[in-house]
Amino acid sequence: MHRCLRTTSVGSLPKPAYLRKARSAHEQGGLSASELESLTKKATREVIAVQKEIGIDVFVDGEMYRGDMATYFAENLSGFEISGLVRSYGNRYYRKPVCTSEVKFKAPITVEWWKFARDLTAQPMKAILTGPYTMMDWSFNEYYGTRSELARALALALREEVKALIAAGAKEIQIDEPAISVRPDEIDLAIESFGRVVKGLEAHFYTHICYGDFTKIYPKILELPADQLDLEMANSGMDMLDLFRKAKFTKEIGLGVVDSHSHVIEKKEEIRDRIRQALEVIPPERVYVDPDCGLKTRSWDEARGKLKAIAEAVSELREELKLD
């Protein structure tokens, strides 16, 4: 793997039409669990093949086996029921988890899918789960007395998932916390909860933060015990770099250089320019290059095009700057 400007993806990639149809059929009782699993594995193989073809450094499994990032984990923990559809943003909806009893870890949630994907490539494979603060914020709480109690309970449960992943061989683990910048007054709770998940565990920890007002939590967010902060930079015009000039960015950065919410496939020149801007304040060995967010809402042609543009731009920039 390259030492500078490593390329990766945030996590989710588009589900092929046959898998979306199969998941719907399964929910309606028209397709067995084993048939759905077979098609999910097929889609995962295709995701890995695309990343190999493009030449990505750190792979993701594409999350073909899960739907919403909060609901999926709630369905696999004790203590949750699932509500009807709730709007998240725009015209997108999800089934909001409802905490109705004590939250407990039951059994590994992502481990077998991570192992399946890992065995398809020699490249590093990120394991990805949703963090305790976001799980708390995106759930109705009908059991615990406070938001902090629910966040801490989730942290203890999710820690068991991380331990199971590490025991299975995972060395790169991303704990998504997109909600962390929405309530700046709860930043201490978010940092504490994340710490409860990872404290004393040996892995390279990422977190992904993708909306909200980052200016309200920086530089405090640098106290989060993750090796890397993966940030939505392209969509915000790279304006966070001004913050980093005022208060030094001390971690690795997952540098979002393509807009995951746009149908436009960015030009290599535009991506190279964004990376150059970042290299003015963060050294190349601490820069990972990826999309702003997961690409599951894009078409496969758009997702492939954006990842290919990233890989080609990075390759040309490494050569130009004589990196690696």
Class of secondary structure makeup = alpha/beta
Q: Roughly what fraction of the amino acids lie in strands? A: 15-25%
Cα separation of the termini? 10 Å
Q: Provide the residue-averaged pLDDT.
A: 95
How many alpha or pi helices?
10
- The third-level CATH topology is TIM Barrel
CATH architecture: Alpha-Beta Barrel
Biggest sheet features: 7 strands, parallel
**In total, how many beta strands?**
10
Q: Strand order within the widest sheet?
A: 1-10-9-8-7-6-4
* Helicity level: 25-40%
Rg, Cα atoms, Å? 19 Å
Describe what this molecule looks like in 3D.
Helix content is 39%, strand content 19%. The termini are close together. Strand 6 (172-176), helix 7 and strand 7 (204-209) form a beta-alpha-beta unit. The protein is built from ten helices and ten strands. The protein has one domain: TIM Barrel (Alpha-Beta Barrel). Helix 1 (17-27) packs antiparallel against helix 2 and helix 9 packs across helix 10 (300-321). The strands form two sheets. The chain has a seven-stranded parallel β-sheet. A three-stranded mixed β-sheet has the order 2-3-5. It has 324 residues and is of the alpha/beta class. It has helices at residues 17-27, 33-54, 71-75, 111-118, 132-137, 147-167, 187-198, 240-246, 268-279, 300-321; strands spanning 6-7, 77-89, 92-105, 127-130, 140-141, 172-176, 204-209, 228-231, 252-258, 287-291. The mean pLDDT is 95.
